[in-house]
Amino acid sequence: MEDKAINTTRCIIIGASHAGVNCAFALRKAGWDGDITLFDADPTLPYHRPPLSKAYLTSDDGIEKNLLKSADSYEKENITLNLGLTVSAIDKSNHTITTSDGKVHSYNKLVIATGARPFIPPIAGLEQAHQLYPLRSAADVNHIRSALKQSPSKRVVIIGGGYIGLETAASMRKLGASVTVLEREQRILARVTAPVMSDFFSLLHAQHGVEILTSKNVARITTSPDYNMVICDDGSEYPADIIVVGVGIRVNTELAQAAQLDINNGIVVDDQARSSDPDIYAIGDCSYHFNPHYDRFIRLESVQNAVDQAKVAAASICGEAPIYDSLPWFWSDQYEVKLQMVGLSTGYNNIVLRKELSDDGLTEHKFSLWYFKDETLLAVDAVNNAKAYVVATKLLKSGTTVDQVKLADNNQELNPANLV
Amino acid sequence: MAKITFITQDNISVVVEGQSGSLMALAVENGIKGIDGDCGGVCSCATCHVHVQADQMQLAGEASEIEKDMLELDDNVSEFSRLCCQIEISDALDGIVLTVAN
Predict the structure, then answer these.
(1) Which residues from chain A sit within 8 angstroms of residue B72, using beta carbons?
(2) Where are the domains of chain A?
């Protein structure tokens, strides 16, 4: 009897991107032998998102080269993919969801991995603009690629100087576009890095011919038959054949909210990724979760968080008692520069900049920025310096106190033993 | 066309054939256990760690500086370690045997 009961259980996962797909496969690995059904509004077989603004944008590849898992893998693991279908409601008391085609599906466990959507700011004239795109989905990038190919003058304006905007700028430049980035703050990457890093990337983009303009608040967009004009509130105007909007995201919490789950900047979950309903989990960009390394609740937009939380949720659903305690990490590739970040710098009051010596002296393009709060290391941004990233990861994981004087001394080889 | 053998941690040998692209992509395509490739193949996550057979290191080639550093994230790194997203498939790899590290 009991076996039969297990065989008829079903886990439904809403959202088939990094978090949802990894959770499905992790469930199988953890021994879930009931049904696993994924739903996603995106009709494309689930794919890696980080390359969209980088290698995928500059290539002619189809998305099949960027799949999270092959089509066969889903079949082999008996995971049902329902793509191109939106989930319209969760009924937690009846343990069902309703999809946009009106069908009702019952679940024993539900995982919400709905992520986020691009925030489109309320700019006058934006909705009428030609060739204006956000950058979050493969379809967005396919539109951008073809718009660029068809544009003779290839004038691109990117609204927003965050990672998406800057990676897109680098990629579009590589494709021969003339690119202007309009950032509202006084410096690019203002929300996520220290001024040293903003300066480095400003210079890098300038060296590659990208115009980066800060303190530029876009007020309206006018559109003539051939092109758009992006107009800032200081009166400056920038012609654009293509506009990319990268000013942040909105978390997809509506379904959870309508189902009366606890929401606070995201779907509130415990250390096993469980929401306020014990049979509903939330993972990835949409989850608001506790991070023991930083002793506070956070929401993260990253592959690391999506994948790690997916595994924790899967283990918990299968009756284990995992605890989510991952150290956050991120990366960004622009031109030939590889930026790797570990930890969260929020709340830092002190920075150590460490430049590495190379055979021919100091190199401007290999350094690391160490964020401290007093004596405590919070985070590290490593530029073309995987060693610093790895050493920092180890130090952050072990909670070792770092000697800041030794750290700044680039005659000392960078390794954990030399820094204590 | 190259025949590639992956030996997983549960000691299962899987022989797959590849023509182009990275060994990581080939492994993911074929659902090789222990090769996650979370970062999509840009040497940023170290979840595609393999050990190359000692006498086949020449085939696989040497890891780049970044790759060597990233491998240090994993406790079971050895002189035969590679991140297989950094190995391009070519006919020259025919017959290579890779032990998945995790």
Answers:
(1) 387, 390
(2) 2-117+250-317, 126-247, 336-419
